[in-house]
Design a protein that fits this description.
19 helices, about 450 residues, 7-stranded mixed sheet, alpha/beta, about 40% helix, single chain
Length: about 450
C-alpha cells in the first residue's frame, strides 16, 4: 500500500501517460484513448472516424488536447474512475502500470519532461501514437454471456441473446447497423490500414481484439504485413484471444517480433468455463494455456485476462489459483456491462461471501494476492449498491440463455443459486425472449 501511495504521489492523482502514447480504433474506425473512454468527438458532437479524418487530426483534436491538459493539471477525468477505484482500494491500475512502464523504459524524469513539452505546444503532439489497439470485426466462435453482437458473430445470429444487447449500455443503432457487419470495417480497407499503421512509421505496439483474432484471416494478414517490416524486431504484437484455438501460423511469426503476447480470456475452471463462454468446451482453454506455457516458446508471452462477474464471483479464486500454480500473470477486471452480468446484480450477502474468499486467498501471498485483495475491497465498497430489479434481470437473462442453449445454472453453479435464495430471492423461472422452438 505504501508503494501504491508513493506511485500516486509521484505521478499525480489523475495523470496517465496513455493519451501521449496510445490510440484505440474500433470496428467503425472511431477512436478513443482507453476502453473506458467515449469516442473522440468533433466540436459538432459527432465522433471522428478514420474513414473521414486523418489519424493526426484525431490525435491532436481539441478533445484529445483537452484530455491531456486536464491530466497535466491534476484534474480528475470522470471516465478514468475505474482506475481511480482500483487505486483507492489498494490495487494497481492500468494508469499506474502505464506510467511506471514508461519511466522504466524512458528514464526517471521522462514523464516530467513529457508534461513540460506538451504544455509548450498546447498539448498538440508532433509525433504519432506508438501503441495501436485495433478492434477487428466480430468474427468469433463463441457466445460469451457478457458479450454482444459487436464482438461475436455467433451472438449476432443467436435469436435470443442478441435481443438482450439493446440493454448493455451500447447504442443499438451501432450494434445492429455497423459493428455486426463484416464488410464495412475500416480495417478491411487496405489503403486505410496502410495509411494508419505504416506511413507514419511502424508503431512499437499493436494489439488486436474483438471477435477471435486466431481465426480471423484479415488479422493474420495484417500481422504478416507487420512481420515483413524491417523494424518488426522492435515491435510487440498482442492478440486478445479466447484461447480455444492455437494458430501455429501466427505463433511462428513471433520470431519476427520483439515479442508476441497472447492475452487469454479465462473466467472459470471446469464446467463454468463452457457455461460462461459457450462453445469453449469444458477444459479446452485451460489445456491450451498449459500447452502454450509448457512449450515455453521464445518471444512468446502468455498472460490471463479474467472477468469477475455474477456467474463466477464465488469461484473466482479457482482462476487465480490456477494462474499462481502455473506462474501466469492475471490482469482481472470487473464486468460492468451488461449490468445484469455484473457482480453488483447479486444480493449483498452473496457478494460478501465472494469478498471473504478473495481476502482469504490474498493471505496466501501468491502472485495474484494483491489482485485478490483489490477485487475484495472493490466488492465490499459497493455492498450498499443493490437493486432487486437487477437481480431479476440476471435471472431472466440466465433462464433465456439456459433454455436456448441446453444449459442449467442450478447444475453448473448450484452454490450461487442456493445463496441467492437464502438471501430472500427465490429463483424465478420467468424468461423474456426465449420461447419453445427458438
Amino acid at each position: 500500500m505504501d508503494e501504491q501511495n508513493n506511485f500516486i504521489q509521484k505521478y499525480g492523482k489523475s495523470f496517465c501517460v496513455l493519451p501521449w502514447l496510445r490510440i484505440l480504433i474500433d470496428v467503425n474506425g472511431q477512436c478513443s484513448n482507453c476502453c473506458r473512454h467515449s469516442k473522440v468527438r468533433m466540436e459538432s458532437g459527432l465522433p471522428y472516424s478514420l474513414t473521414t479524418s486523418g489519424l493526426m487530426d484525431i490525435w491532436n483534436s481539441k478533445a484529445m488536447c483537452e484530455l491531456r491538459r486536464l491530466m497535466v493539471e491534476g484534474k480528475a477525468v470522470p471516465e478514468c474512475n475505474s482506475c481511480y477505484e482500483k487505486e483507492l482500494n489498494g490495487g494497481s491500475s492500468r494508469r499506474l502500470d502505464a506510467n511506471w512502464s514508461y519511466e522504466k523504459t524512458n528514464g526517471f524524469d521522462s514523464i516530467a519532461s513529457l508534461k513540460i513539452e506538451s504544455e509548450k505546444s498546447n498539448f498538440s503532439l508532433s509525433f504519432a501514437p506508438t501503441e495501436y489497439h485495433i478492434e477487428t470485426d466480430n468474427l468469433c466462435n463463441l457466445r460469451c454471456r457478457m458479450c454482444s453482437p459487436r464482438n461475436s458473430s455467433r451472438i449476432q445470429t443467436d435469436g435470443v441473446h442478441r435481443q438482450w444487447c439493446s440493454n448493455i449500455g451500447q447504442r443499438r443503432k451501432t450494434v445492429e447497423s455497423t459493428a455486426c457487419r463484416h464488410d464495412d470495417s475500416w480495417f478491411k480497407d487496405d489503403s486505410l490500414v496502410e495509411e494508419t499503421l505504416f506511413r507514419g512509421g511502424v508503431p512499437k505496439i499493436v494489439a488486436f481484439s474483438g471477435g477471435e483474432p486466431m481465426i480471423n484471416p484479415r488479422v493474420i494478414r495484417i500481422v504478416k504485413r507487420l512481420a515483413s517490416e524491417s523494424t518488426s524486431q522492435e515491435q510487440n504484437v498482442t492478440l486478445v484471444t479466447n484461447g480455444t484455438v492455437i494458430n501455429e501460423e501466427l505463433l511462428e511469426l513471433r520470431h519476427n517480433f520483439r515479442l508476441l503476447s497472447l492475452c487469454v480470456s479465462f473466467d472459470a475452471v471446469g464446467n463454468g468455463g463452457e457455461y460462461i463462454r459457450n462453445g469453449a468446451g469444458r477444459d479446452v482453454v485451460k489445456e491450451n494455456i498449459l500447452e502454450l506455457v509448457n512449450v515455453k516458446k521464445n518471444r512468446l508471452h502468455v498472460m490471463i485476462c479474467s472477468t469477475l462477474q455474477a456467474y463466477n464471483a464465488l469461484e473466482f479464486c479457482d482462476v487465480l489459483e490456477f494462474c499462481d500454480n502455473n506462474n501466469l500473470i492475471n490482469s482481472p477486471n470487473f464486468v460492468y456491462a451488461p449490468k445484469h452480468c455484473s457482480v453488483n446484480a447479486l444480493p449483498a450477502a452473496v457478494r460478501e461471501v465472494a469478498a471473504e474468499r478473495l481476502l482469504e486467498f490474498s493471505k496466501k501471498g501468491g502472485r495474484s494476492s494483491a489482485h485478490a485483495a483489490m477485487l475484495a475491497n472493490v466488492i465490499q465498497s459497493n455492498l450498499g449498491k443493490f437493486e432487486p430489479a437487477d437481480l431479476h434481470e440476471f435471472m431472466k437473462f440466465t433462464n433465456d440463455l439456459d433454455f436456448s442453449r441446453g444449459q442449467n445454472i442450478k447444475e453448473t453453479f448450484p452454490e450461487l443459486v442456493r445463496l441467492i435464495e437464502q438471501s430472500g430471492y427465490p429463483w424465478i423461472e420467468e424468461t423474456r425472449y426465449w420461447k419453445p422452438g427458438i
